[in-house]
Specification:
- By secondary structure, this protein is mostly beta strands.
- It has 2 domains: 207 residues, no CATH class; 79 residues, Sandwich (Immunoglobulin-like), CATH 2.60.40.
- It has 1 helix and 29 strands.
- Strands 2, 3, 8, 13, 16, 21 and 22 form a 7-stranded antiparallel sheet that branches. Strands 10-9-14-7-17-18 form a 6-stranded antiparallel sheet, with no helix packed on it. Strands 26-25-28-29 form a 4-stranded antiparallel sheet.
- The longest helix is centred in the C-terminal third of the chain and has 8 residues.
- The relative contact order is 0.21.
Length: 297
């Protein structure tokens, strides 16, 4: 019998507490209030577990920053004797638009294994929640980088995992799913998957957020400690250290995040060979990283 993707309804919940870091969210930073589809293991009419599934979101970074953790909306159910549900969370840099880049255009930046406990219940119904999964080391990303986050699991007997989601009427994209055992061999927009009889689009927009650190922005650090001139520039861009900080390295990137010029232990960089446009300058100092923009004439 061909397996189908199921959609379950659970009691909605409450709110989410604020955190110190900045959350990058495609669902408005909301706590999950529902769930979306999953790929069941079945025996007759009974669901006995879940098949291997992956969920994805892609973010285009608006600034240079560091990703420190991932917030995963979830609903977990476990049979008696099953102690936890194992997940793997991975972070990638994409070399182009996602999911078209998934075949061979993803570079892995981080991978974390996490075991989730059974969800709390409210009047007998499981409650959607958010699990914050910290990266072992913060991942530096640049303006224009396309960063893909993947939550995946193998087949688990006696356990169910559903991505916590907000209602399909909420703003934001739905996210992506891959579940080969349920006929979704390629990464597919969840909203396009047809569920049930008669077939209807899958509900819910998955909560899968990036969390960046809350340190002072590298742009503010630059303004406090450095100046660049001339700006706009034709050939030589000079860097002035206002507070005696040592410049260890200067890199220049275009707005896609590609590094186009580098120099070490200097206070000037030749940009004469660059085409006209706006660029990002990164200064690595003995007291931290500073970032600003300049215009090449």
């Amino acid at each position: 019998m061909k397996k189908i993707l199921l959609s379950l309804a659970f009691v909605c919940i409450s709110s989410i507490s604020s955190i110190a870091q900045t959350t990058l969210s495609q669902t408005g930073g909301a706590a999950p209030t529902t769930n979306t589809i999953f790929c069941p293991v079945t025996s007759g009419q009974t669901t006995t577990g879940i098949n291997a599934t992956s969920y994805y979101r892609a973010y285009t970074m608006a600034t240079n920053t560091k990703i420190v953790s991932i917030k995963v909306g979830n609903i977990v159910n476990l049979a008696d004797g099953v102690t936890g549900f194992p997940l793997t969370v991975k972070l990638y840099k994409s070399n182009g638009a996602f999911p078209a880049s998934a075949a061979n255009g993803l570079t892995q930046l981080a991978s974390i294994n996490k075991t989730l406990n059974k969800s709390a219940s409210n009047n007998g119904s499981l409650v959607p929640a958010i699990e914050t999964i910290d990266l072992s080391t913060p991942v530096a990303v640049a303006t224009g980088d396309i960063i893909v986050v993947e939550v995946s699991h193998g087949a688990v007997n006696g356990g169910l995992f559903l991505m916590g989601a907000v209602a399909s009427t909420a703003s934001g994209t739905s996210g992506y799913i891959k579940a080969a055992q349920c006929g979704i061999a390629n990464i597919t927009d969840i909203s396009t998957v047809q569920v049930g009889t008669p077939p209807t689009p899958a509900n819910g927009k998955i909560v899968l957020d990036l969390v960046e650190n809350n340190t002072a922005s590298t742009d503010d650090f630059f303004k406090s400690n450095f100046a660049i001139y001339p700006n706009p520039v034709n050939d030589i861009l000079n860097i002035e250290s206002k507070n005696g900080l040592t410049v260890n390295e200067i890199t220049v990137s275009d707005l896609s995040g590609k590094v186009v010029a580098t120099v070490k232990n200097a206070y000037a960089i030749n940009v004469s060979n660059l085409v006209a446009g706006t660029y990002i300058i990164n200064v690595e100092s003995n007291d931290g990283r500073a970032t600003s923009k300049f215009v090449k004439k």
